[in-house]
Amino acid sequence: MKILNAKELAEVDAFTMNSQSLSDWELMERASSRAFLEILKKINPEKDFVYIFCGTSNNGGDGLALARMLNQKQVKIRVFEVAYSSSTSKAYQKNIKFLKENRIQINTVQNQNEIPDLNPATCIIDAIFGVGLNRRMPGFIQELVKKINLTEAFKISIDVPSGMYLEQSIETDEEFVISDLCLTFQLPKLPFLLPETGHYVENFKLIDIGLSEEKIKQTKTPYNYITTSDVSSILKKRAKFSHKGSFGNALLIGGYEGMWGSVIMTTQACLRSGAGKVYTHLDKTGRLVLAQHALESIYIQNCPKALKSNPNWNAIGVGMGLGLSNNAVQLMEEVLAHQPKRLLLDADAINLLSKQKNWLKLLPKNSVLTPHIGELKRLVGEWDNDFDKLNKAKQFCKTYQVVLIIKGAHTCICDGTNFYFNSSGNPGLAKAGSGDVLAGVITALLAQNYKVLEACQLGVYLHGVAADLALESFSEHSLIATDVISYLGKAFQLLESKID
Ligand SMILES: NC(=O)C1=CN([C@@H]2O[C@H](COP(=O)(O)OP(=O)(O)OC[C@H]3O[C@@H](n4cnc5c(N)ncnc54)[C@H](OP(=O)(O)O)[C@@H]3O)[C@@H](O)[C@H]2O)[C@H](O)CC1
Ligand SMILES: [K+]
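The line above is the sequence of Bifunctional NAD(P)H-hydrate repair enzyme; the predicted structure tokens follow.
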């Protein structure tokens, strides 16, 4: 699924209206009526008192349409025109006319003194600014938003929380609506997926408004959102006459300084993700634990020998609990000298790279690095904001020709040109061990010869789905990494059921 900016969305809107012979008001009516159905699920039409704040352009137009629909349902409402401009959109004017015809009172707010008492409101609909915000909101709207945020009312933002920009960060002294629910039209918006702003849009719902799929497909954007339909087309069927050699040999290297569990979980996840054979090198003191927990894996005692004697590792995953000792440095040197076809670097492998930046040039092309935020900082340096972070990550990938998987609530894959944000997963994954499991899933897919970017997308998505499915037995609090491994099977089943 694509993530578009305001200009691209406006082009898709225009194309849709043209191809479906719709006026802008009709498209707005479609959008608002679908948002209205979602709002009805969240309010008590008999009891709630809904305040609707409408800007003077199309986001405001949506708000006015919602006011009319709520009024028709006999919901108690108050409508406020937040008059930041004297020029209004056509669809907005038409909706104002309808409200007047229905004798619905419209209150105007155009300065700080006109901000109403919000105490009576039990629900607030924020339709002040949508995707069109392109500069700082006027002072009186900043004050209004501050007041909205202080109320106990249930807050619903239409399309985008007012004050949030699609493609730039918000200054620390700027306000934006912190809503309980954001009903966003058709496609997700970039700030929802970035931690600085996404933290305040935890609950967003995509409202399908029938925009032209053809036009969306044609629109070029670097930003993408990974959904089931994107990845189910990637997953390959296992051929009937295949054998273990058909699915690759994966070598996993880590598990030192008592951190055996780390690489053993990677091993288990790799075994559960379809690799033909999984070999694991860990500190020899951990070999019995490996034998107990991953019977199907093959223990490698002498890693340098295994690297030298076998030029045909289909994929190597290194770093999970590797430590930063001299031994770890040597192992990394061996791996880099081997120049594997497919290489994944996680955890301590990334930390070692950050210390020895001259190694970066030695990484085989298309190596996959899976840093969490702290590890990313050590690799690319500090960033000013999330947009700067994306730029730095992109530059890093371009310079070293690698793929970054930046782990987080919406894990982001960057290949130097495009970004892919994951849609699956939950905060139960915010625990030690989750990354080890992800490394195992992706190494298994790399070993099976999936294209690197496809292995990353599929792996990240499956890992999140497994965590989501695991919530049928566990809670976000109780979920642990090994639970995620035990639900990988169900996650694969879900995608397999979608293969034609
Ligand atoms: N396909 C869809 O997704 C549909 C979306 N709809 C809704 O329409 C909005 C987008 O409408 P738009 O009118 O483009 O944008 P806004 O309502 O957000 O209004 C912003 C306008 O105000 C001006 N502007 C921008 N920033 C400021 C500011 N800080 N102060 C004052 N004015 C500002 C700007 O115009 P300028 O020419 O002055 O730059 C914007 O035009 C979308 O979010 C949906 O809610 C439709 O319902 C149909 C389908
Ligand atoms: K809004």
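Note on the example: The pocket of LZDS7PUF (ligand 1) is lined by residues 9, 13, 27-28, 31, 55, 57-62, 84-85, 89, 129-138, 158-160, 185-186, 209, 211 (CB under 6 Å). The mean pLDDT is 97.
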